[in-house]
Write a structure and sequence with these properties.
Elements (H helix, E strand, L loop, with lengths): L1 H4 L4 E4 L4 H13 L6 E4 L3 H9 L11 E4 L2 E4 H11 L15 H13 L1 H5 L18
Parallel strand pairs: 1-2
Antiparallel strand pairs: 1-3, 3-4
C-alpha cells in the first residue's frame, strides 16, 4: 500500500467497464508527463482507495482522482484528468462553466448506465507492458 501514499494523482476506475477502460487507455497514451497513476477498483489498491473515501468498490457510482488528501469525483474528476493531460485536452476545462449540478447529473446518468450503453469486459482490462509501471 506504499504505492497509494506516494505523491501524485491516482485515477481509480472500473476496469470491467468498456468506457472506463477506454478512458484509462486514453489517459495512459496522452499523459506524456506520466503524471497520473491508475488503479482499478477491482484491484487491492483501487478498492482500498474507494473504501477510504466512502465508496463501495462492489457498487461504485463514480471514478475518483486521489491526490494526497484531495479527492475529486464525478465530473470534477473527469475535468481534472483532462486538464492534467495538457493541451488540447485542457480545453475541456471550459466545461467548468456549466454548473456542477448539471455536469454531475449527466455524469451520473452515464455512470449508472455504463454497462448497458458501452458494455462490460468479461475480465478486467490489463494495460500493455509499456504502462504497467503506472498501474497500482
Amino acid at each position: 500500500m506504499q504505492e497509494i501514499d506516494r505523491p501524485g494523482p491516482i485515477i481509480v476506475f472500473d476496469a470491467e467497464c468498456i468506457l472506463c477502460s477506454a478512458n484509462a487507455q486514453f489517459v495512459l497514451t496522452h499523459d506524456k508527463a506520466a503524471r497520473f497513476r491508475l488503479a482499478s477498483m477491482q484491484g487491492e489498491a483501487g478498492a482500498a482507495l474507494f473504501r477510504r473515501h466512502g465508496i463501495d468498490p462492489a457498487d461504485p457510482d463514480t471514478l475518483i482522482v486521489v491526490d494526497g488528501d484531495r479527492v475529486l469525483r464525478d465530473s470534477d474528476a473527469i475535468l481534472a484528468i483532462y486538464a492534467g493531460l495538457g493541451w488540447p485536452w485542457r480545453a475541456t476545462s471550459m466545461l467548468r462553466l456549466v454548473p456542477r449540478t448539471v455536469r454531475n447529473r449527466v455524469y451520473r446518468l452515464i455512470a449508472r448506465n455504463r454497462y448497458r450503453l458501452f458494455g462490460r469486459h468479461d475480465r478486467c482490462w490489463v494495460p500493455s507492458p509499456d504502462y504497467r509501471a503506472r498501474m497500482l
